[in-house]
Amino acid sequence: MKPLEYSILAGRLSQIKEELRQGVKKPYQEMLDVYMGDPHKGGVKPLSFVRQVLAACLYPELVNSSKLPVDVRQRAQRLLSRCDGGSVGSYTATRGIPEIVLRVSEFITRRDGGVPSNPENIFLSPGSQWSLSKILNALANPESSPRNGVLSPVPCHNTTAMSVTGLGADVVPYYLSEEQGWELQVEELHRALESAKGVCNPVALYVVNPGNPDGHVQSRKSMQEVIRFVSEKRLFLLADEVYQDYVFGENSEFLSYKRVLSEMGPPLSDTVELASFHSASKGLMGECGLRTGYMELVNLDPAVMKHILTMFSTDTCAPVLGQIALDLMLNPPQPGEPSYPLYHMETQNIKNTLAGNVKRAVEVVNSLPGLCCQPLEGGAFVFPRVYLPPSFIQKAKKAGLEPDTFYCCRLLEEAGLLVGPGFEYGQKEGTYHIRFCILTSAEIMEEVLRRLTCFQKQFMKEFS
């Protein structure tokens, strides 16, 4: 998104909030912000087990308090014993607390049906995007001629594109097929690679599964095609898998790229270079503010691994509370433990709410004139297409804004609803979209859809 356009949305949001505080009459009494994927901001309650363990780690006297379940106190005591000085205020090893790194590798092995995971290949970091930027830094040589390039999906969150260009490399866009439910098609990868000839030298392919903002979940067949493609073209595979907990399509299943690669067998399983990413921000716990994720590397040359370790060592460790949250996300209470019944009830409520939000959002959006949403299989967002009248597009151009950004400005002003314009994430020329988060309480989602419905009907009437 152009800085000017974002500043208009963000600036007007602040102004409207202030006007509401001063008693200025609006068609709404409060703003609804579903721009970002922030579950707690959207009314999803934090998990009790997670907050109890974090509280005991921050205030160790609670370890001896009968007010907390015994398994909470035991987990906190164990985690504190792995911190220098028994305090979360101490630094840890650069790649993370060793026991937590080990437990991440054990989680990966369980998730992937027994495919081994080596703790030496795992790095904890201040969020998945931080790790991704480090790997991109290792792959992209700003002094190479021609410049290096990274194949990146369209649509896609813009953080990755900014990282690539910021490192002096080129983004090589490949377009997901909206008509096929935002499917990744290998033919499009070949087209994108061909388009880079004479412009840059592509060194990596970036995939997001489940998709953001599109909500597509790749099939095993699709992933196998991607793996064969990167092997044939000698590309490094970057797999952003942070929304793996959010899969709700009836016929959809999350499979990690590592698992699919391993099950394809040699020579692919021994040669394709892969980095995969996950985050405590995007799991069911939704602890976005704790800023911790992990990266696992597969099939890298030992010399390259040594270089990456050196790169990570130039920074301090990931936030210690975030590391603890990551451990709790990947190793939750088990049946028979005191905290399990409440944990199970809370996580099941989140899953049921999300499934309900998905169903309602798609139904409502597809019932409105001028909006069309593909089926959602996973992820945290709805990304409907907006069919904007030519007269409105002309107004947007006169205002110096992209048409869907101008649409978002109108939606913000008239309905008190903040969503993201498709322009921010990339889209085929001549198409327009909006993105909004579905990781909210059911009540907030109903209000979001009510406001969108009222606005869209009036909008279409105005420009019909």
The order of strands across the largest sheet is: 2-8-7-6-5-3-4
> How does the major sheet shape up?
7 strands, mixed
Shape summary = globular
Structural class: alpha/beta
Radius of gyration: 23 Å
Binned, the helix content reads 40-55%
Helix-strand sequence:
HEHHHEHEHEHEHEHHEEHHHEEEHHEEEH
Strand tally is 14
Strand content: 5-15%
Residue stretches low in confidence (pLDDT < 50, at least 5 long) are none
What is the helix tally?
16
Distance between the termini: 28 Å
Mean pLDDT level: 94
3D structure, described in words:
There is one protein chain. The protein has 464 residues and is an alpha/beta fold. The strands form four sheets. Strands 2-8-7-6-5-3-4 form a seven-stranded mixed sheet, sandwiched between helices. It has a three-stranded antiparallel sheet with strand order 10-14-13, covered by helices on one side. A two-stranded parallel sheet has the order 1-12. Helix 8 links the parallel strand 5 and strand 6. Helix 5 runs parallel beside helix 6. The radius of gyration is 23 Å and the shape is globular. The relative contact order is 0.15.
Secondary structure: elements and pairs:
Layout lengths: L2 H19 L10 E2 L14 H11 L11 H12 L16 H14 L10 E4 L2 H12 L8 E7 L3 H9 L3 E6 L10 H10 L5 E8 L11 H14 L2 E5 L16 H8 L3 H4 L2 E6 L13 E6 L3 H12 L6 H11 L9 H28 L3 E2 L8 E2 L2 E2 L3 H9 L4 H13 L1 E2 L1 E2 L12 E4 L4 H22 L1
Parallel strand pairs: 1-12, 3-4, 3-5, 5-6, 6-7
Antiparallel strand pairs: 2-8, 7-8, 9-11, 10-14, 13-14
Helix pairs in contact: 1-15, 2-3, 2-12, 4-12, 5-6, 8-9, 13-16, 14-15
